Structures are given as C-alpha cells and as structure tokens.
Description:
Layout: E1 2-9, E2 13-23, E3 29-39, H1 57-65, H2 88-97, H3 103-120, H4 125-137, H5 139-148, H6 157-179, H7 184-215, H8 221-240, H9 242-246, E4 255-259, E5 271-276, E6 279-288, E7 292-299, E8 309-316, E9 323-327, H10 334-342, H11 357-365, E10 393-398, E11 410-414, H12 431-440, E12 443-452, E13 458-467, E14 470-479, E15 485-490, H13 498-508, E16 511-512, H14 518-526
Antiparallel strand pairs: 1-2, 2-3, 4-9, 5-6, 5-9, 6-7, 7-8, 10-15, 11-12, 11-15, 12-13, 13-14, 14-16
Helix pairs in contact: 1-2, 3-4, 3-8, 5-6, 6-7, 7-8, 10-11
Amino acid sequence: MIVKCVESVSENRAKLKLIHFKKSDEKEIKITESTETFDLRYDEVYLVEYRFPLYSPNEIIKRAESMLPKECSEDAKFKKYNLLTGNCEHFAVWCVTGRKESIQIQGLFEKIKDGATYIFGPTSAVSKGVQKIILNSVDEIAAELKKAVPSIVVSGIAAVYLIYCVIMTAVNIKYYTVDKTLCWSCLKKKLLKLWLSLVVFGITSGIQLIIYTFALPLISSPLRIPFMILIILLSVGLQMSVPSLIRPLQSPIFGHDIFLKSTDEINVGDLLELKYFKLPHIILVTEVHSEKVRAIHYAAPSHPFARRIVKEEYFSINSSSVKKKYMLSKCYPPNVVVERARKRLGETKFNMWSNRSSHLCNWAKVDLRAESVSGVDDHSLDRPKSNNKSSLKVCNREVHLVDELEEGDVVILDKINMLPFWVSDKFPFMSPFMVPFILMNTYVQGIVLDIKGNREESITLELLIHIGVQVCRVRVHIDLKTERLFVCKYLEGHCKSMRDRVTAALEMANKWQIFFTNKAFVEACVMRHPE
C-alpha cells in the first residue's frame, strides 16, 4: 500500500488514506483510493524503508495516483490485478523505485524450482519444464536472458543455477551502477544470498550424490525410499535456511559508505570501516589527530586463548582505504555517542553473530528510544476491521547499561546465572526442588521486580520467575561487562504499564500457578485485558 496522507493518529490507532489494490463493489480487484483505520493491537502493520528511493514522497504519491482507474490509460501497468506479474507488492515497489518486481513471488519461484529439482532430479522432464516456466514467468530475468544468452539448453541444474547466478549478478550490478535504483548495502545483501545459495546447493548436491552412489546400495530395499525422502527434505530445508544463515553475517549498520578524500572529513562520533588484520572492521572515533584517530572497538585477543575486549586505541588512517559510514537512522549527538561507547570499555561479551564491533558501534550511535505520540484518543477513531490480535512480542534487545532496564521489564538470562539463586524466606525448602526445573531449560525468563547496583556494570536483579508449577522470587547478580542479558520488547498497545506489570507479578509470588509454558506466565503479567 502507498500512504497518501495520515489523517489522524492516536496512541494505538491511525487513520490513513491509502492507494492500493482492493476489491471493488463489482467484485473486481483494481487500484483504489480508500481511507482505512489500523489498530496496532490487532493489525500487523509494517513500514518498508527504502534506503535510496528513486522518487520523492510527493512523486511517489503522484505515480500511485496515475494508476487509479480514472487517471490511467488503456496500456497502464496495473490496469488489471495479476498475482504473478502485477500484485500489490509490484505496484508499491514500482511507485517507489520504478521497477515492477515482487520479492515474495521471486522467492516462491526459487523454492518451487529447488523443490522440483530435488524431487524429480536435475535432468528430468518435469524439472526442465518447471525451470522454463519459472524463467519465463519472471519478466526481469527473462528479458536479460534474451539479451545475454538467446539460447540456453538446460543440460543440468548445476549449470542452470550457475548461469542464473551470473545473470542475476550482472542485473543487480546494472541496477546499482547504471539505473541507480539499488544501494551498495542492498547489492551486497542480494549477491551474498545469491552465491551462498549456490554454494549450499553444490554442497547438498554433492552429499546427495555420494549417498546415492555409496550408501544407498547398502540399505535394505524397504528403507531406501524413506531414506531418500529424508535426504531430500533435509536438503530442501537447508536451502530454505539460507536467509537465516546470512542474517547474522550482515552488518546491523543502516547506511551507506563514503570513501574519504582526506582525514579532514572525519569527525568525533563517526563510524569508520578499515582493514584490521586484513579483515573489514568497524570502529567508533573518539579523537581525531592529523594522521591518526583514537577509536573504540572490539580488539583482537592478546593470545589465542584470550577473550576479545572493548578497547580505545589509536589507528593510523590511510584515507584511500578507509570508508566512513553515513548513517540513515536517528543518531545521538557526537558527545553522547562517545560517552555511551566509553561506558562499555572492558567488556568481554564478544559474539561473532550478534555482538561484534559493528554491533557495539551501532548501539552507541543509533538512538532507538521510542518517540512519544501526540495525537487524538483511540476511541475518537473508527474501530479497525480486524478481529485478530497482532503479535505481542517485537524483539529481544541486549542490555549493556543499567539505565536500559526498568522495573516491570521481562528479561532473559543464561540458566547458569540462576544456580546461586535466592528464594523468599517463606519457602526456603523449595531450593533443591527447583534446581532440576532450572537445569531443564536453556535460559530463564522473568519479570524484574527490583534493580540494585551502584556501578554501571555490576547489578543485582530481583526477579519473579515461573519454575515447574511454582512462581517464586529470585535474586541474581549480573556483571554486564561479561554476562549477556536481554530484555523482551513488546507492542505497547497490548501491554500494561510497568507498574501494573509488577503489581500483577507480585500477586502471583510464592503461589502455585499452573502455566503450561513460561510464555503463558509472562503474558499473564504483561498483557492488558482486552477492551
């Protein structure tokens, strides 16, 4: 959908004028301008951010209006709805970027192609037919195929996959260099996913070939078909997990690179990308000198068995090989950025997937605090049409400083930290009973009742947790420099206030409560009653 204007906003509801595909009174799906009310407690609403849109907001609205039935010509791109070539995503992407494409449909085509190949074999007539249908269904790929390789004989799925990757690489590079409709970050993401999928396909195909050649003849006949089905399902599952494998490898920094011409372009609080032990590395600048900078980062370990630690060190700067990160997100002022980063000096919680130097710099730089909404009351807006509740949980966010926690938060911590727990004096005999329940869980989740600690890194939390059928209070000591702690973020429209969360939790303390899951206990404390 394209938002034409925001008519009114309250804490949880918004009344929007939209241009989108919608079923008309004549039961025909066409581009329509309508006013809809959304309630974030019931409607799943996602804002799609384009890092480098080709058109301004006013131009995007004009392009959307040009496709309305009264305005569009007979040969308009979206005169009729088509699930594969002209759906709502095609329309929205075309309004913003000028390209008629749908990531969902492209992903579906790839899954169908891979599934047909695994099930029927790479050289079967069915696989080849599916390949041709898919290649002819995607206008973008088909057009490039006709230009680059007018006649391709599908002799094997590996060759077809390789050709596909090469062509799509050229297409994406063209979008980045010539059309200017793709940013550098998106280009890297697309190419990484494309070629990693090819590598995973090659590995799984090789393993399948070895199993079929050497292992399958050794298996008795009744078990061969189930074994083959199992191998096929595992291969397809691995292929489908490629996006999940890529996500931890991607940088959390939302922005693009600026190649420096001189060190004069560097300012305090900037993020720089340079080579550190011949690998790309992100640092946060705290001081700028003539030919060097002082910066905070996750430093390399002093010896193979040492842990990586956050340090403030000097770096010699060669402007030809250093890139500056231009941030597109809302950021703290430079002095606040440096102050936040210095509070994490000495931290040893390095994690290759979720707490690298880039995560440290992004956390110090980007302001993730929610802005207050000043608008009309919820009840003054129309009630939304959806009756189903939207998702409660938004994400887990790691805690690095004490002021990122407050009473009423739901936190997650490692079960090992819970072993030296403290139980209310009313039930001291429950301690041995609860240890097995703790050991059965990989983590512990609870409601924060109290926070104590004079230092930034060392704190004591009093939590209310659900173990077995008992809700009890425990006390945990956490060193934020060395131990990882996460706070669960929930959609505010569904949640009680922090004070009401604590009150609801205390009512359950030291009582027998039957909750089938820890999630049910947390939701009972957090969720407000429906209107």
